[in-house]
Design brief:
- The protein has 705 residues and is α/β, with parallel strands linked by helices.
- It has 26 helices and twelve strands.
- The strands form three sheets. Strands 2-4-5-7-6 form a five-stranded mixed β-sheet. Strands 9-8-10-11-12 form a five-stranded parallel β-sheet, with helices on both faces. Strands 1-3 form a two-stranded antiparallel ribbon.
- Helix 24 links the parallel strand 10 and strand 11.
- Helix 2 packs antiparallel against helix 3, helix 7 runs parallel beside helix 9 and helix 14 packs across helix 22.
């Protein structure tokens, strides 16, 4: 795909390339200085692609000097900015770097392999088959390191079939991996041939790291098939090359950090070690017995090392079983989240129509605006929406992700609405609902009335279901006043069937129902669980008192604020007049006919001009001929969804503010909405006042530019 959003500033682009050049020359100090300068300039230019590339180079420098934690931190910073662009090449590069870090520097193979697989996905999107080849080599190697040969062979097989993309260094590794796999399969002759091919190819390369790995794996193989003398000779070659690589790496890192004194000391240690080896070599030549003893000791040490490695890998194998179980649990959690998201969207969409049409009836027909039934319908629809949100996102409640809000309300009015809303349930079992509110309670309180209503609705409806031809009492008393806080004791009492003592400890658990027969009572078993968790948000607990055959009483205490000045401020904020003297043109892109009607009615009631289209293609067509002040964009549409429609609108150079009008949870779509070019998000169903605040703000902001 085209990477048109990368390197838009030639000067900054040049800085990034020079920083990369210095890094490849191992001049880490200059590379860091230039990459940080490039980062500052790219940040001022808001060029996410160049920001990502700068962070990528900084991370690579830290990796080169073994600052692994810092390196991973900056790689993830780089990835965050890369994800804001359409540049899939840099995403692939970053994921591959993270895979290398976790697999071969941190030994976190499970995480590293996941990063490699993401890198391959992005390489395939850009048709970069060469990088797909190299990343498959890394994955195969990683799986072999954790002794998962069968899984690793799936990737090695792809590598063997695509050797046209290999370079000299990769040829060494591929031959070595084939040798490891064939050794595992006990095909020793073929394995031996591949190891020798790897060593032959490694001797032709300037870079000797891969040759070192090939010698080590070959020595392990030879020892495994009882060719101990050859294993020892191969191990000596490995040691020699490893020392050369180690010395070069140590000198490079010491030079890059400017540690001159440590460098001199290191060189003296190297000379000392080399002199000792010369003396050892001379001594060994004088005595065959010493040579034999040395070989035996080396073999014993090698055996101990191999035994230790086997023990470690055995433990890793058991750990992998736990990791696989964890992956299964994570996949199940992901499926649960996806299911919740889908169900949430499907329920919120019709609820938007119910709430909207109820509001339209209340506004357009004054003769029924005071109808108790219509008010109950409106309240029940809003309560159902809140209940749906809480049930479908009960995991958020458990993780304390729900934040209480402040509304001004009258406690008697709220309880009366609850009573009226549940009248149908009370009539079903011929029950009576009584209300007793302490007159000492202030007229207006401040708090989250919606969550309080949910708690009381759950408790009262529960009481009505388990009571026949009886009475349910809702009692509220003022028990304490501390400054502006009024502590209210709520009690919901019934004279129904009661709850057995043995069941009282478990009724607040999810999906638990007690004292019911197959068809007597309905419900999810979530009501009391939600009550307990919502009370936890208020910092309160619930008390239960019940006897079989005598009834049940639930009680709890919540503190609400009483502040006349703050109450007036909240009321003024809610009742703000958002009508405008100007007639703004709003385009609504929505495929649901009922939601089209509701949204259009809400907008036109505010004296705005509104046009509605059914899908993204129709939106693009109308925008060719007409100019709008703002676009309300549904997300889940046939033919072309809201994200893709927004991207195409932006490609046409149209800067009209676009607001996502969706039933999806906001947290799920925020990143994708911003990337697509949307300006804001509002979740259906919504309060019209919130919609018009967003509309006015975005239009005024655009006009001010």
């Amino acid at each position: 795909m085209a990477q048109s959003d990368c390197g838009l500033n030639p000067k900054t682009e040049k800085l990034v390339k020079q920083a990369l050049s210095y890094f490849r020359e191992s001049n880490f100090e200059k590379s860091l200085i230039l990459s940080r300068t490039a980062l500052n300039e790219a940040t001022m230019q808001k060029d996410n692609c160049l920001i990502a590339r700068s962070y990528n180079i900084i991370a690579a420098n830290y990796n080169a000097v073994s600052e692994f934690d810092k390196s991973i931190f900056f790689y993830k910073k780089s990835l965050g900015y890369a994800n804001k662009t359409s540049n899939d090449s840099i995403k692939a590069n970053i994921y591959n770097n993270l895979g290398n870090m976790h697999c071969f520097d941190r030994g976190e193979f499970d995480q590293g392999i996941r990063y490699y697989k993401k890198a391959i996905a992005y390489c395939l999107k850009t048709n970069n088959l060469k990088d797909v080849f190299f990343t498959n080599v890394n994955i195969a190697w990683a799986y072999f390191d954790i002794k998962n040969y069968d899984e690793g062979y799936l990737f090695l097989k792809y590598v063997n079939n695509n050797m046209k993309y290999a370079d000299d260094s990769t040829e060494v590794i591929v031959n070595m991996l084939n040798g490891i796999y064939l050794s595992y399969k006990k095909q020793n002759d073929e394995a031996d041939a591949y190891f020798l091919k790897a060593i032959e190819a490694g001797n032709k390369c300037e870079e000797k790291t891969d040759l070192s790995n090939a010698y080590l794996e070959y020595a392990t193989f030879l020892n495994k098939i009882d060719r101990h003398k050859e294993a020892y000779e191969t191990l000596k070659k490995y040691n020699k090359i490893s020392e050369e690589i180690y010395n070069e790496g140590k000198l490079k890192k010491a030079s890059s950090a400017g540690i001159r004194l440590e460098l001199d000391e290191y060189k003296r240690e190297i000379d000392k070690i080399e002199n000792e080896k010369v003396e050892q070599s001379q001594s060994l030549k004088k005595s065959r017995i010493i040579v034999i003893l040395f070989i035996l000791i080396s073999l014993i040490l090698l055996f101990l090392i191999i035994t230790l490695i086997k023990n470690i890998r055995y433990k890793k194998k058991h750990n992998l079983e736990l990791l696989k179980a964890k992956e299964i649990a994570e996949e199940a959690s992901l499926l649960k989240t996806q299911f919740i998201s889908t169900i949430s969207h499907e329920l919120r969409t019709p609820l938007y129509g119910v709430v909207g049409i109820t509001n339209m009836l209340l506004e357009e027909h004054e003769e029924i605006s005071k109808s108790q039934h219509l008010s109950s319908l409106k309240f029940s629809a809003r309560y159902l929406l809140s209940l749906v949100n809480d049930i479908l996102q009960i995991n958020k409640i458990e993780e304390n992700k729900i934040v209480l809000e402040n509304f001004t309300f009258n406690i008697l009015d709220e309880i009366t609405v609850i009573k009226n809303s549940l009248s149908f349930l009370s009539q079903k079992n011929n029950n009576k609902i009584s209300i007793d509110v302490d007159p000492a309670i202030p007229e207006y309180l401040i708090g989250d009335k919606l969550r309080l209503s949910q708690i009381l609705m759950n408790l009262v409806s529960n009481a009505l279901k388990f009571t026949k031809e009886g009475e349910v009492e809702i009692k509220v008393d003022l028990v304490n006043v501390e400054g502006k806080l009024n502590y209210l004791n709520f009690m919901v009492k019934d004279n129904g069937i009661g709850i057995a003592a043995v069941d009282q400890s478990k009724i607040f658990e999810k999906f638990v129902q007690v004292g019911r027969k197959d068809a007597d009572y309905q419900g999810t078993g979530l009501g009391l669980s939600i009550v307990k968790r919502l009370l936890g948000l208020f910092g309160s607990t619930i008390t239960l008192d019940s006897d079989l055959g005598k009834g049940t009483s639930f009680s709890f205490v919540i503190a609400f604020e009483h502040d006349l000045a703050k109450t007036k401020s909240i009321i003024n904020e809610i009742e703000v007049d958002l009508t405008s003297n100007e007639i703004y043109k709003i385009l609504v892109v929505e495929d649901n006919l009922i939601n089209q009607l509701v949204t259009k009615k809400i907008i036109e009631k505010n004296n705005y001009a509104c046009k509605v289209v059914d899908d993204g293609f129709a939106a693009l067509k109308i925008l060719e001929n007409e100019v709008f002040d703002l676009i309300l964009m549904d997300i889940n549409m046939p033919l072309m969804n809201g994200f893709e429609t927004t991207k195409r609108i932006r490609l046409l150079g149209i800067e009209t503010p676009i607001v996502a009008l969706t039933a999806f949870d906001k947290d799920e779509i925020t990143d994708e909405a911003i990337t697509a070019g949307m300006n804001d998000i509002i979740i259906k169903p919504f309060e019209p006042v919130k919609l018009f605040k967003i509309i006015n703000f975005l239009i005024n902001e655009k006009n001010a530019v």
